[in-house]
Write a structure and sequence with these properties.
alpha/beta; Rossmann fold; 2 domains; eight-stranded mixed β-sheet; globular
Amino acid sequence: MSDKASKRRARRAKRIDDGLARSAAKNIERLAKLARGEKPARGRFKDARWMAGVAGLAAVGTLAGVSAARSIGKPHPVDDPHATEDFTRLDADRASVVTTADGVALAVREVGPSDAPLTVVFAHGFCMCMGAYHFQRARLEEEWGNQVRMVFYDQRGHGQSGRAPIETYTMEQLGLDLEIVLQVMVPRGPVVLVGHSMGGMTILSHARQFPEHYGSRVVGAALISSAAEGVVRSPLGEILKNPALEAVRFAARYSPKLVHQARGSARSLIGPVLRAAAYGDENVSPAVVAFSEKMIHETPIETMVEFLHALEVHDESAGVFILAKIPTMVACGDRDLLTLVGSSRAMAAAMMPRCELVIVPGAGHLVKLERPEIIDDALVRLVERATPSKLVALTRRLRERVRGSG
């Protein structure tokens, strides 16, 4: 085929892709209007494929209704204990960059001495960043002192880490990214892994791909508000059935410039679910709520939509049986509407007898922000169980004696 003919085919293909993406954007706008109660226009939008998206919108309404019902007749907080909290504390910690095999720059922060006897690595969740571990970073530094180094990093496409080709936004790739972080940041010595939501799935993916590390290098793991398989049974799963999200995925893959036309509408579908499911108690600190919403808002729409698909199709159940070889902790709020408490119970049962199951009454999906003291205490117990030398436990007991005599 001549160069001229090839160029003509390329131009024609681009016109087709652009046309499909524009159509997708229009359909997203139409679906958003339906969500606002506006009557749909005549035409293809009334096709059953698009009307199927109503189920997803109904799920949004259900979540909003649940949140509203919980707040009826209950007083809202007047004083915010975290009104003056500095949620940027992690930004001041030692910074470095880890580059993945495919060239993505992952932002990393670390706390504690580089030669500490133990390192704890934290992987954050969907539409969050490493700052979501704000309360754990503050409390656990005080608890562990120089006996433990903590390493936090932003997942690809999130926070300060670089964006990547959207076809790499998979659980498989996140497990590979975690391996690179471990190779660069913790080349030797025992490690405890902590993952929230998608971060827990990252750990399961890593365990499946690198089982030889577990029981030797990786001596403990915590899965917080997570699931071993796709989240199709939760309200989030209903949203994932919405054809509008598939339209945005198509635009992101084949006509990235046009996806920005649908940013607002896509967020109007996803945002309410994440916000409604984040907290189980309406008396949660407004400053904490604002902090989590800021992280969601700053997540690129391509990251949001593509990882939603990854959450839907992932199956890392094989990793659960690898984790059964080491001490583990599974935690979940009993009002978590994204990763249901049944998922946590099932994972914990498969990892018994070396697993501690922590169900937090009244808490939602962001339990580590909503009830940090419960999660922090559970992490302290996990490290004590996972550290053969018991140095961390000894340090804690000595600190308690000093406080008691003070």
